[in-house]
Amino acid sequence: MCALPLDITLLTLTCLTSIKRERRATLQVAYRPRHRYKRCDAVEYCEELTLTPYESLWLSAFIKTQLIEVSLGLLLLFTLSTRGRLSTPLSLPRDLLVLFIASSITHPPLWFVLPTLCRQWGVSYEGYVAIGEGLVVLCEGLWYRATLRPLGGRASLSLLLSLALNTVSASIGLIFR
Q: Within a domain: residue 87?
């Protein structure tokens, strides 16, 4: 096992297949200033990095959700901005980050916490989706109200934005499930 020092300034993790007889995976870690290269067995690291099938589904859904909600959110904010409905002009990097963080906050609990609770309470899958999406719309609406400056703190616009983004995202997710 490799002991990774805390003062690593450059860390490059690469799983390579060696051409040696064993054809074992190796991990190449570049350190500065201590060692130029240090090789260690990557099998244990690669096993730690593998995802369960459920985690793989979550990661796929998370990426798709981010792509849908962030792009659609920016489009809706831009449309509201051009029509003069926003209180301040858009700040693309900030608004992009706010939209990304909203789903990042709500997506993991929706996938990893709520299913366990719904199973304990005996809630069906349809009930889980309804409860989950309702909570997500509410949480993200509150997040948008607190952080999206162009909305001016208006709860109605924040909740409508959250509802629109999550309706499209959940619908696409359920259709291609």
A: yes
